């Protein structure tokens, strides 16, 4: 017995939907953030540019966004320039800042403080937390060690190995140096949000068995994918309801009674520091286009240390046809020979034995929150 095969063409409406949904969708540019700088005492570091000594005070820096209450952690990416605490700061573009090594700085931020907890960072670096330190002092050490690593890449500054912290005789010397070495010795690459994707595999090989279609495989470079469905439900191999799947995990589709179509939606959420740069500006410029900030004079450039939150939504629409009563499905469905990757890219419809699959995959750039 053969699985019922339908060869009727797609309607004009369905074909148009597939083409439109297959095109990449891009999020609108978020409103630039502006805010005021707040500082707290940090630690004085000893370092050098090449053979020339250059010691610097690493203050703890924060940005309090206008209209918000939470103070964001920021780092200096301009070691030679004094900080103007009287002027507001507005978000600009990394290319406009003239600062080097964005990829390395992204990696430092992802693996440094506060994206990694203060005590956890010190211990992961091979350092030790002095039991007499307060929580504030532990955070101070983690921040300063991360700041030293940021300056290494943005300004070409090196932390001294001998007595790197002035007065750091209570373990600060060793802990800050350990963090600095940990964050500068073997940097990796942090992907840009535009490179993250969520895809689906299995349309060409899925079968109908025991009242369900599948398996389908999630492919995600952005982490776990939360799934939902309209017109049916999603199951694991064992029959449990599917909520979230990791890359490479499978699911099956069970159609609702009398349904012939199901829409599967997926969302991958992630946190990723992306190098959002802040430049000093003026109150007057903030009444206009803050994305093109007018600098108020020489002042340190800053970078947001806390993660950017984003999500990548995807959606697939299937027209599924189960075999008629009494028929037995074949172990595997025949295919038309159409390339699945081409179908995804062009938003085409695949006509396969027993299934019409309307691919409506969406890939979006992340949106800042």
Structure description:
By secondary structure, the chain is of the alpha+beta class. It has 2 domains: 12-27 and 192-270 and 323-358, no CATH class; 34-190 and 273-308, no CATH class. 20% of the residues lie in helices and 30% in strands. It contains 7 helices and 20 strands. It has helices spanning 12-22, 94-97, 102-111, 118-124, 135-155, 172-184, 340-346, and strands at residues 34-45, 47-49, 52-53, 56-65, 72-76, 89-92, 158-159, 198-201, 207-209, 212-220, 225-230, 232-235, 244-245, 250-255, 261-272, 277-280, 302-304, 308-320, 349-352, 355-358. The strands form 4 sheets. Strands 1-4-5-17-16-6 form a 6-stranded antiparallel β-barrel. A 6-stranded antiparallel beta sheet has the order 13-11-15-18-20-19. Strands 8, 9, 10, 12 and 14 form a 5-stranded antiparallel beta sheet that branches. α3 (102-111) packs antiparallel against α5, α4 crosses α5 and α5 packs across α6. The longest helix is centred in the middle third of the chain and has 21 residues, at 135-155.
Task: Tell me the count of domains.
Answer: 2
Instruction: Please give the radius of gyration in angstroms.
Output: 27 Å
Characterize the largest beta sheet: strand count, sense, and whether it forms a barrel. Answer: 6 strands, antiparallel, barrel
Number of DSSP strand runs: 20
Instruction: Describe the global form.
Output: elongated
The strands making up the biggest β-sheet line up spatially as 1-4-5-17-16-6
Low-confidence parts lasting 5 or more residues at pLDDT below 50?
Answer: 1-29, 328-369
> Can you write the helix and strand succession as a string?
HEEEEEEHHHHEHEEEEEEEEEEEHEE
Distance between the termini: 54 Å
The helical percent reads 10-25%
Portion in strands: 25-35%
Structural class assignment: alpha+beta
Pfam families: Gram_pos_anchor, TED
InterPro entries: LPXTG_anchor, Thioester_dom, TQXA_dom
Keywords: Cell wall, Membrane, Peptidoglycan-anchor, Secreted, Signal, Transmembrane, Transmembrane helix
Organism: Glycomyces rhizosphaerae
């Amino acid at each position: 017995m053969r699985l019922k095969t339908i060869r009727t063409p797609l309607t004009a409406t369905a074909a148009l939907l597939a083409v439109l949904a297959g095109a990449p969708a891009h999020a609108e540019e978020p409103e630039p953030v502006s805010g005021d700088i707040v500082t707290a005492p940090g630690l004085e570091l000893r370092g050098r540019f090449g053979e020339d000594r250059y010691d610097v005070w690493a203050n703890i820096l924060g940005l309090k966004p206008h209209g918000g209450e939470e103070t964001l952690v920021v780092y200096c990416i301009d070691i030679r320039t004094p900080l103007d605490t009287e002027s507001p700061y507005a978000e600009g573009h990394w290319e406009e800042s003239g600062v080097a090594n964005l990829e390395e700085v992204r990696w430092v931020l992802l693996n440094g403080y506060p994206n990694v907890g203060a005590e956890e960072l010190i211990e992961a670096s091979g350092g030790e937390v002095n039991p007499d330190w307060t929580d504030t002092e532990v955070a101070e050490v983690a921040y300063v060690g991360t700041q030293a690593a940021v300056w290494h890449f943005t300004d070409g500054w090196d932390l001294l190995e001998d007595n790197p912290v002035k007065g750091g005789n209570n373990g600060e010397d060793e802990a800050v140096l350990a963090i600095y070495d940990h964050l500068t010795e073997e940097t990796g690459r942090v992907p840009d949000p535009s490179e993250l994707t969520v895809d689906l595999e299995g349309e060409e090989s899925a079968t109908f068995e025991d009242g369900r279609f599948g398996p389908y495989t999630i492919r995600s470079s952005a982490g776990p994918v939360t799934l939902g469905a309209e017109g049916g439900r999603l199951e694991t191999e064992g029959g449990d309801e599917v909520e979230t799947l990791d890359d490479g995990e499978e699911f099956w589709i069970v159609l609702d009674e009398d349904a012939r179509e199901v829409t599967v939606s997926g969302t991958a959420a992630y946190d990723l520091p992306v190098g959002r740069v802040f430049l000093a500006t003026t109150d007057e410029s903030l009444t206009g286009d803050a994305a093109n900030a007018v600098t108020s004079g020489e002042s340190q450039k800053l970078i947001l240390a806390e993660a950017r939150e984003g999500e990548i939504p995807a959606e697939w629409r299937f027209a599924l046809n189960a075999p008629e009563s009494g028929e037995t499905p074949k172990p595997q469905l025949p295919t038309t020979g159409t390339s699945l990757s081409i179908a995804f890219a062009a938003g085409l419809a695949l006509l396969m034995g027993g299934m019409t699959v309307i691919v409506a995959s969406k890939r979006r750039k992340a949106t800042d929150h």
